[in-house]
Amino acid sequence: MLALAFLASTAEAQAQVSAALQELSGEADAAAAVEQHWIWEFFSYAASEFLWVGAWTAVKITALSMAIGLVLGLGLALMRLSRLFVVRAAAWFYIWIVRGTPQLLQLVFIYDALPYIGLKFDSFTTAVIGFALNQAAFSAEIIRGGILSVNKAQSTAATALGMGPVLTLRRIVLPQAMRSILPGVGNDTISMLKLTSIASIIFVNELTFRAQQIVGQNFRFFTVFAAAGLIYLILTSAISIAQSWAEARFDLERERRPRGETLRRMFGFRLNEKPGEDVPAPKPLAVSPADAHVSDDDVFRSLATSAGGIAKRGEPFVVCRNVQKSYGDRVVLNGIDMTVARGEVVVLLGPSGSGKSTFLRTINHLEPVDWGEITVDGRHVGYAPLPGGGLKPTRALAKARADARIGMVFQHFNLFNHLSALENVIEAPIRVFGIAPEAARALGLRLLGEVGLAGHADHLPHRLSGGQQQRVAIARALAISPKLMLFDEPTSALDPELVGEVLQVMRKLASAGMTMIVVTHEIRFAREVADRVVFMDEGVIVEQGPPSEVIDNPSQDRTRRFLRVVERAETAS
Ligand SMILES: Nc1ncnc2c1ncn2[C@@H]1O[C@H](COP(=O)(O)OP(=O)(O)OP(=O)(O)O)[C@@H](O)[C@H]1O
After folding, report:
1. Residues in domain ABC transmembrane type-1 (predicted)?
2. pTM score, two decimals?
3. CATH number of residue 194's parent domain
4. pLDDT in tens, 144-154
5. Which of 152, 327, 410, 517 maximizes ligand 1 atoms within 8 Å of its Cβ, making it the mutation to test the pocket?
6. pLDDT tens-digit readout, 82-134
7. Cα R_g (the chain), whole angstroms
8. How far is Cα 551 from Cα 563, in angstroms, rounded to an integer?
9. Which residues contact 542 (CB under 8 A, 6 or more apart)?
10. Cα 208 to chain center, whole Å?
11. Of 457, 481, 505, at which residue does a domain stop?
12. What is the ipTM of this complex?
């Protein structure tokens, strides 16, 4: 009524009211004719075109404002997460102003103030702009919360596969963030639909306003407002249903069922299925890699060969010179010099905090170095040489990583939680390396078969054991045809009985001729598989050599002490 009073106080508004009432007169006559029973009256208002036209206006404002608000909100959320203070501050300031002032005032301000700077919009457009700008501030915080809820390890894994920031955001982070974003967005959409009624302050002829117009003429408060309420309820229920559907779609715990499977479970049949046709047998369980058939054209061997592992075996491949890295005052790598030959398997040993993982991450530029240089296959990853000597970071870092083709396997697997095992494996080949989906699928299935997981291609990571997840992670790293494989404690997060299946795959890869640098505490594996063992402590290489020297006959006291501790721990477990 306040809005109506305000409206009636201006000449333009009075013209609008009388036009609306004229439009309404047909409805009002109809209402008068059926006045005999309130229920009938209620339903005739609830079905009246006059109210539904207003509802449609509310829906259009909500849909447009929500879409624009979400896009702007995503931009603001990314600004809030920026490393640049000025960018973060600008986003924060916008959100602070918009969230801190009443929306009604914002609408009036846009409607009355913008014409002074030459921007005149009609009421509907003004409402869309006003609601969208308001929603952007609220969406920004919901989206930022969603992005922060996704484990950073997910983007690290994507980065290691050569995926750039935008691709990582679109394919990996946002789909997982949706689970926490959707309830907030659903809430805001419902609130906005109801709040569109305040747009009547700038003469938008929406649902509540139309209901008030009818009441202003016939004073049937109860039936008219109840009918408007019912229409709101129908529309907000539709939003809730859409929200539930979207939430189910992004629910990672949800079992992925083929089309018609739900009906079959409920009624015992499947759509498009001939009666009597047998339901296909479940796919066979994974065979253990130890039992897996290794064919002559073993995928691992062809990968290693294409990386030059056999033909050029022994040539320097990874060359690190005086690599230095600090975090604040803490020096983590203090002048590492190391060369890894093509086809060589190097195991890095060392106590916790000695800098092994950091060193590994500098090789594919997941961490930039402070000093020194690293080349892989003769090229710097993420650095370009300066004309007068020295190096400068390249802008196209994702491309540099992709070109280097360095596969990385992490301690906690870092599989993309929203993608099946096969989708995990083929994501980078399709999106980064442009392989046709069908060819990528064939390669993915072969690799999964090779790590003993042919029967688990459609399973989401949470349905796989730790050992199986790590084998998928190895297949995923191999799918980019790596020239070099980095393993960062690949078995440390596994139960002892699952360690063997992962080590078996790594053994197979090593014997195929793949160049590998492995950080591990598995002394037996190092003894069996490594060509060279490098022992690190406090950011320096203490000693290195064949396992028979470093493990069985270490020259340094520090190495002996470390090996004693590891052996004691192995005996205890
Ligand atoms: N992003 C980071 N910011 C600050 N400090 C870090 C960061 N990453 C690693 N460090 C520190 O650098 C040191 C070396 O870490 P790093 O993970 O390389 O050691 P590590 O030998 O691999 O140990 P672990 O076997 O426990 O993983 C540790 O003290 C760690 O706390």
Report:
1. 55-243
2. 0.79
3. 1.10.3720.10
4. 999 999 999 99
5. 327
6. 999 999 999 999 999 999 999 999 999 999 888 888 888 899 999 999 999 99
7. 32
8. 7
9. 350, 535, 536, 556, 558, 559
10. 40
11. 481
12. 0.95
